[in-house]
Amino acid sequence: MAPRDANWIDGLRGIASFTVVCAHLCTAFVPWLHQPAQDPHTTPHLFQLPFFRLAVGGRSAVALFFLITGYVNSIGPIGRSRSGNTDAAFNGIARSALARSGRLILPTMIATLLTWFMANINAYHMTMHVDSTWIRQGWHRQEPTLGSAFNSLVRAEVETWTVGWDDYDGTQWTLHLFLEGSMLVYMTMLATVLVKPKARFFIYAVLYLYFWQMGEGQAIGALKGLNIIFGMFIAELNHHYRDTAPSVLPAPIPFLLIILGLFLSGFPQDAPSNAHWSDTMARLMTSLTRENSDIRRYWDHLGAATVLLGIFFSRNARRVLSSPVFNFLGRVSFPVYLLHNTLMKSVLTWMVYLPSAMNPPRNAQGQQMDLQRGTTTHIFVAVAVFYYVLYRAAALWVGYIDPLCARAVDGATGWAYGEASLREYRPILQRVEPKYSQSPVREKTRLDSPV
Hints:
The protein is 64% helix and 0% strand. It has 451 residues and is mainly alpha-helical. Keywords: Membrane, Transmembrane, Transmembrane helix.
């Protein structure tokens, strides 16, 4: 795998990706954890309590992805704007906006192609008969003809970015929002490159209030807008404080911010009225948002944003997130996000339900019933193997698929800009003596990570 500089934001991205996978596993096998208790009069399970329930905190992890998107896509233009290098800022925004689309869309199209292939070789057949509602909902039929199969592939590839839904992988519904969020960053930076940092802080505040009051339907304002703008705000703070940020606040405060953020991130997805603490949070947020707002998205945002703020001001948290383990998790975070649902519907399902599939249960009338999962120990072993396969596949993706996508995007953008190819072709086995050019070496722009 190609080396990559360790940094705390990469580690945070890796944690978010891991949490999304963990949350989907819990949704598949223990969906009742989304409630703070079975009912208002029942003692909650350990993993229904605050902090412990972050095992099903995938929604806050998605909010964290948007925060990171706002941060990494704005930090370069902000730095150039603050240094007065406006020409470089405009140039960087233009190049990033064009390349960003390819770096996000092309890998996603390949992942959709993979899950389409799996469906059409009937690899998801078992998912139609399992007792897990979440896995069963991911089933897709094997198309009867090659023509209909290709038609369904084209529709899935297009609708991922037009209507926000992929019939072959429902977890890709956020990706068009990530692309829109990136464009929101570039538009905001384009409009504010020439303004003073203090004025840009004011603009962030206005945009934040605008997205807070949107609150419609699934609260796209809270899911996308608030997180993107707050991520840009953190990037601005990064350039404002530079290397002194970890020493700005007294040591306990960043730690307390992280703890508070983790608590807020635990707001339950379902039935918040079943526990006093979550019911209080629901009532509070209802009073602060528009009618019929999805208050869960607001708590997801506030929790993830508070965690990010605490980490930003914490030297120890940054050091931990920059460690080799978290650096690896960050490098493979995007392919993990793209591949986990495909592997859950195939590899994990095969392992968990194979014993039942070998002897399918039937009712008194002889009709086949849902396949039953194995014992708890069996499931834990299957999940451990699944994680190994997932992260091994993601590492291979980073090693082989990502470079192909990068070359394709670089070639397409180079052609669009009218640039000559930088690659030098030489005859095989010909010895070439080193030459030292008198012309200045062109600096290659580093593109942001896709997620």
